[in-house]
Amino acid sequence: MNEEHARAAADIAEVEAANTAFYEAVERGDHEALSGLWLPGEDLTVSCVHPGWPVLTGRGDVLRSYALIMANTEYIQFFLTDVNIAMTGDTALVTCTENILSGGPAEDGDALGPLVGQLVVATNVFRRTPDGWKLWSHHGSPVLAETGEEDDEEPSAS
């Protein structure tokens, strides 16, 4: 493997680790760790779209949204599938499917409220910084329809 390919492979591994760290911080409810994963300052305005929410722009609004989510979610776990990483220069694009399992506040003395599953397709954009790869944008959209293969057979006449 030549030096260019080795560097590209290392970059992809670093972006994958940054992407995983993002989801793990949300799962732990670790707002401080999550804050450290986003681009600092406002030089490149960060943005975020949570499923069903309007576009949030600016580091303050984005981080407040995660604080709100963390404060109102007792349990959340992400199982990422279909992860794809594309890169150009100092920008990386990660697409994936978030298979989310979450639970709200407990009911009737239970330790945890009912668990709910949800599918979200996400795009995470990272920028290379002197401190590693940082999130520039996150966009999550709910999956509203099954994505299985369609039946190719013609419907039968009755």
UniProtKB/TrEMBL annotation:
Top-rank taxon: Bacteria
A family per Pfam: SnoaL_3
Skewed-composition ranges (Acidic residues): 147-158
Region spans: Disordered: 139-158
Domain SnoaL-like per the UniProt entry, residue ranges: 15-143
PANTHER family named in the record: NUCLEAR TRANSPORT FACTOR 2 (NTF2) FAMILY PROTEIN
Name the UniProt record assigns to this protein: DUF4440 domain-containing protein
